[in-house]
Amino acid sequence: MALIEIDDLHVTFDAKGRHVHAVRGVSLAVAARASYGLVGESGSGKSTILRAICGMAPVTGGEIRIDGRAIPARRDRAFARRVQMVFQDPYASLHPRHTIDRTLGEPLRIHGVARGTERGRRILRALEDVGLDPAFRFRFPHQLSGGQRQRVAIARALMLEPEILLLDEPTSALDASVQAEALNLLSRLRAERGLTFLMVSHDLAVIDHMCDRLTVMKEGRAVEALDHAQLARHDMKADYTRELFAATTERIAAAE
Amino acid sequence: MTGWRAWLLDPAPRSPLQARLGQAWLGWLRLSRNPLALIGLLIIVALLVAAALAPLLATHDPYVQNLAGRLQPPLSPDHWLGTDEFGRDIWSRLVYGARITLYIVALVTVTAPVVGLIIGTVSGYFGGIVDTVLMRLTDIFLAFPRLILALAFVAALGPGVENAVLAIALTAWPPYARVARAETLTVRGADYIAAIRLQGAGSGRIIFGHVAPMCLPSVIVRVTLDMAGIILTAAGLGFLGLGAQPPLPEWGLMISSGRKFLFEQWWVATMPGLAIFIVSLGFNLLGDGLRDVLDPRGSSK
Amino acid sequence: MSLLEIEDLRVTFATEAGPVEAVRGVSFSLSRERLGIVGESGSGKTMTGRSVLRLIRAPGRIEARRMSFDGIDLARIPEREMRALRGRRIAMVMQDPKYSLNPVMRVGRQLTEGLRLRDGMSARAARAKALEALEAVQIRDPERVLEAYPHELSGGMGQRVMIAMMLIPEPDLLIADEPTSALDVTVQAEVLRILDGLVRERGMGLMFISHDLNLVSRFCDRVLVMYRGRIVEEIEANRLSQAQHPYTRGLLNCLPTIGGPRQPLPTLTRDAAWLE
Questions:
Q1: ipTM score assigned to the predicted complex
Q2: Do B194 and A97 touch (CB under 8 A)?
Q3: Average pLDDT in the C1-7 region?
Q4: Residues of A in contact with B201 (CB under 8 A)
């Protein structure tokens, strides 16, 4: 049975006086320990799906199930221990006035786990896991580079040892070389901890590198679902997928 | 010298305290490059010193009357700022008055901004009906002219420094609530707030641990800039006989009693007036400097 | 003769921790060709582009042994003459059209204002010219776009309007700073094609600043690779795959490819010697 099941999901909300139907009947299933990708251009509703899972966007139709059970209307602490998210912009996702120590310690404090010296040990281990020196512990976010901040954000998401990690364009704000490091880190952590990824990106190449299956989205609808092998064989049916594929490969293949 | 400086500027602090002090030190470095802010700070420090060391700085007892030596002009042999209508030394009264001014400032600082910050952040964070109710309440308080409302309170509660402060605090919080709410509205949608909510944090923790620290700088700046107005209101209440009562050496009260001699013995009212002016100026200059240092947008780089 | 010649350009910022050099001795020349400047964030590529227009704000300072544009000494001429050059002979397209267009002014007015004020054109002539410019960037319904406010345009449309606006005075040099990075991939290609066509047609010089090595190589004649304020490699665009410098090689290799192997991506090991 799939770990995450999304059934005919609709999300509608009012933004700036306009009625937005951001997600229009999307269904997908993510197996446990799998890595699933959502790819699409701006306004395709891909990030909205992640936000809907977290309760940051209203579900107006359909259902989201985790482990066969509909997720609670109010995302509680138990939900927080299972599902965590990494945001796109590492400059906006860390509290500017909290040290890294506080940022990483906060989840432990909220859930009342790992008190006293154990908390410090957990924070140091989390830093080590994402490849950051212990010297970073008491720095503020503005003293870190974008890549280092994103590592902290990943470490924070893993503090409660969740099974599901939602990744919202986790590397699109990073330089290419830093993106490679962050993607490698995510792959390693997934292998080590048996995590389930639901990853959103506008970059088909990134999704292809990271995910076993993916759904191409456009204007709130799922255009096509593909797996890794199909994409490698260029075995796609929808024109839009082909267009996206061509635009992406054209960009990359140019140097060769 | 270089040892503690290196410790403060250590890019890899070893404790939360060191990290915080390091940031404070950087803030101080930024502030210290602004000469006007430094003048403001100097004035506030002078006020603090005067209040703390009043018995040492005062040349006379501020309450002892000497009717033989009344209304002596400044620079007279025994009284360098002159004496008032009861022959009390004006300098000594000003120095002791600094304590009352500081008392007022301290009392207002621990009440109005705190109330404003709580109401503003709660209102901005929850939005909806909570926001509507709290903000209309704020509007009601904001609609009253400050001095008139303070007058009404003092009239109801009776004159005295504490009641004057209470009256001022009750009328001073709405602007802070407004500032805090505006700041909260921009912070509320930030990813780091979404992240902490996803970690399962409750509203109380988010508001006081994550939102309020972002609002604090603007509120602090606003309080510093308002301090001049607060001192003036307190002085005004004193002047009207509704704040501090004689024979307390409160500056507004001193102006009030000097009013009768304004044309012949100008110094009786002018000296406390100058004191109010200088302290107000000090708070304003410091507030302007703090705005540059504390602005979260400016220091994020 | 080259259009733009830059020798030993330095951009320094005074900070609390002492001066920080964002550009450290960059020299290059540009004739009527397409020159790419590539680097990651903090490499000084944007600062280099802005220096040409002297658009560096205090506490930043520009120094150069030589900085001449068509015989004009950019480093020495007074600000008034610089203003006359900006937009007219040297134009700049920036990353996000949202920040470059005035949000409360109709597109039409923004396009024609310069023509009417600077060149004293009549309203009708300016409008005709603006329409022509919008057609040149392949906007299908230019009449409607002229009446629109910037927020009513999509990202790709806004960027095309920006390009049209910059090209109206027919500048000799266009500096494009990440002109397509804020756009979707399918739109990117189109905007680039338009930009490319216009540059070729009018024979102007182009300085194309980007973080994307592949994009630049496809689009430019020559590429400068910058690292921490220095040029580490200069190479003909079509010979990019034979790049020598380990930094350039690293940048080329670290991108994931579709259908590529699942092993970890090669990462860049930075060498202190590159800074020399």
A1: 0.90
A2: no
A3: 86
A4: 106, 110
Percent of chain A with pLDDT over 90: 61
pTM here? 0.86
Determine, yes or no, domain membership for C43.
yes
Give chain A's domain count.
1
pLDDT grade, residue A121 (50/70/90)? very high
Residue C107 placed within a domain: no
Q: Which of A131, A109, A132 is nearest to A120 (CA)?
A: A109
The residue written with tokens 């120590």 in the block is A101
Task: Tell whether C23 is covered by a domain.
Answer: yes
pLDDT in tens, C34-56: 999 998 888 999 999 999 998 88
Reported as a pLDDT band with limits 50, 70 and 90, residue B295 is low
Instruction: Report if residue A237 sits inside a domain.
Output: yes
Token look-up 């921009």 returns B186
DSSP conformation letters of chain A:
-EEEEEEEEEEEEEETTEEEEEEEEEEEEEETT-EEEEEE-TTSSHHHHHHHHHTSS-EEEEEEEETTEEPPSS--HHHHHHEEEE-S-TTTSS-TTS-HHHHHHHHHHHTT-S-HHHHHHHHHHHHHHTT--GGGTT--GGGS-HHHHHHHHHHHHHTT--SEEEEESTTTTS-HHHHHHHHHHHHHHHHHHT-EEEEEES-HHHHHHH-SEEEEEETTEEEEEEEHHHHHTT----HHHHHHHHHHHHHHHTT-
Q: What is the domain partition of chain B in residue ranges?
A: 49-294
Query: What is the predicted pLDDT for the residue at B2?
Result: 67
pLDDT at C217: 83
Q: How far apart are CA C205 and CA C209, in angstroms?
A: 13
Distance CA A19, CA A181 (A): 39
Domain residues for C228?
A: 1-89+212-276
Does A239 fall in a domain?
yes
pLDDT at A255: 41
Cβ-contact A90, A149 below 8 angstroms = yes
Write the CATH number for C77: 3.40.50.300
Q: How far apart are CA A65 and CA A69, in angstroms?
A: 5
Q: Could you tell me which chains touch chain B, where touching means 3 or more CB pairs under 8 A? A: A, C
Q: Considering chain C, what percentage of its residues have pLDDT values greater than 70? A: 98
Q: Do A93 and B195 touch (CB under 8 A)?
A: yes
pLDDT score for B165: 84
Chain C partners of B26 at a C-beta cutoff of 8 Å?
16
SS3 track for B1-35: CHHHHHHHCCCCCCCHHHHHHHHHHHHHHHHHCCH
Structure confidence by residue, pLDDT tens digits, C167-196: 888 889 999 998 888 778 877 887 888 888
**CA of B286 to nearest chain A CA: how many angstroms apart?**
22
Mean pLDDT throughout A197-218?
93
Residue C227 within a domain: yes
Answer yes or no: is pLDDT of A13 > 50: yes
CATH of residue A215: 3.40.50.300
Provide the domain limits for residue A80.
Answer: 4-91+164-255
User: Chain A 42-81, CB below 8 Å of chain C: which residues?
Assistant: 42
Distance between CA atoms of residues B94 and A252, nearest Å: 77
Which of C107, C48, C55 has its CA nearest to residue C83? Answer: C55
- The answer regarding whether domain B49-294 maps to CATH 1.10.3720.10 reads yes
Q: Is A138 exposed, middle or buried (0-12, 13-18, 19+ CB in 10 A)?
A: buried
